[in-house]
Amino acid sequence: MNDPILRLEGLTKTYNRGKPGEVQVLRDVDLALAPGEVAALVAPSGAGKSTLLHIAGLLDTPDAGRVVIGGQDMTGTSDRARTAMRRRDIGFIYQFHHLLPEFSAAENIVLPQLANGTGADEARARAEDLLDRVGIKPRAMHRPAALSGGEQQRVAFCRALANGPRLLLADEPTGNLDPATSEQVFAALMELVSGTGLSALIATHNMELAARMDRMLRLEEGQIVG
Ligand SMILES: Nc1ncnc2c1ncn2[C@@H]1O[C@H](COP(=O)(O)OP(=O)(O)OP(=O)(O)O)[C@@H](O)[C@H]1O
């Protein structure tokens, strides 16, 4: 395989170690995502999907193991280096959109680009292009409250891709939507991702959606089993 965009090696994570409520969530997890590969992460509730995604996205640190992104070993790096890597190379999508309510759809996609040093005109053009690709360009000037749940989530996808990341991490991206909307929104996400070379790890409980990705990874009892 080409050099992976994301490589996790021997990840171990225990919450409340040595205290009441100790829970070992990850036990020696290994995983590699090739450029352009879209993998589903499937697991029972509470099995550690969010923990795995947070560690892969440099929002949390493992007790042991390595996180390598784009060939760069991020283990033990400074907060500054992790923040820079997150901003430049990683896009996040959550179950809830977390859009800024006082800004329009387009502005929500422009702002992370400005924070990354992109010029205003270029950022706006990119926001419009992304909104067009998910079919909601006419909604560009609407604030999140004036958008449907599916539209809000499409905007969140565009925001995640605003800075052209190499890695997309999504935690139940359609989990808050009804089945029909979930289907449409998932198709929009695949449309955005396909052909970009972006690697994606998408946690979902939806086995139909999982089956449509390149690979399905199951997290069971703290380990990837397939
Ligand atoms: N900060 C924390 N402190 C203590 N325990 C935690 C913490 N975060 C998560 N846990 C526990 O670790 C386990 C895994 O949590 P995690 O959120 O990663 O699971 P999940 O697979 O994403 O769950 P779900 O599908 O329900 O969102 C759970 O038992 C949870 O209660």
From TrEMBL:
<dbReference type="GO" id="GO:0022857">
    <property type="term" value="F:transmembrane transporter activity"/>
</dbReference>
<keyword id="KW-0997">Cell inner membrane</keyword>
<keyword id="KW-0067">ATP-binding</keyword>
<dbReference type="Pfam" id="PF00005">
    <property type="entry name" value="ABC_tran"/>
</dbReference>
<protein>
    <submittedName>
        <fullName>ABC transporter ATP-binding protein</fullName>
    </submittedName>
</protein>
<keyword id="KW-0813">Transport</keyword>
<keyword id="KW-0472">Membrane</keyword>
<keyword id="KW-1003">Cell membrane</keyword>
<feature type="domain" description="ABC transporter">
    <location>
        <begin position="6"/>
        <end position="225"/>
    </location>
</feature>
<keyword id="KW-0547">Nucleotide-binding</keyword>
<dbReference type="GO" id="GO:0089705">
    <property type="term" value="P:protein localization to outer membrane"/>
</dbReference>
<dbReference type="InterPro" id="IPR027417">
    <property type="entry name" value="P-loop_NTPase"/>
</dbReference>
<dbReference type="GO" id="GO:0016887">
    <property type="term" value="F:ATP hydrolysis activity"/>
</dbReference>
<dbReference type="InterPro" id="IPR003439">
    <property type="entry name" value="ABC_transporter-like_ATP-bd"/>
</dbReference>
<dbReference type="GO" id="GO:0098796">
    <property type="term" value="C:membrane protein complex"/>
</dbReference>
<dbReference type="InterPro" id="IPR003593">
    <property type="entry name" value="AAA+_ATPase"/>
</dbReference>
<dbReference type="InterPro" id="IPR017871">
    <property type="entry name" value="ABC_transporter-like_CS"/>
</dbReference>
<dbReference type="GO" id="GO:0005524">
    <property type="term" value="F:ATP binding"/>
</dbReference>
<comment type="similarity">
    <text>Belongs to the ABC transporter superfamily. Macrolide exporter (TC 3.A.1.122) family.</text>
</comment>
<dbReference type="InterPro" id="IPR015854">
    <property type="entry name" value="ABC_transpr_LolD-like"/>
</dbReference>
<dbReference type="GO" id="GO:0044874">
    <property type="term" value="P:lipoprotein localization to outer membrane"/>
</dbReference>
<dbReference type="InterPro" id="IPR017911">
    <property type="entry name" value="MacB-like_ATP-bd"/>
</dbReference>
<dbReference type="GO" id="GO:0005886">
    <property type="term" value="C:plasma membrane"/>
</dbReference>
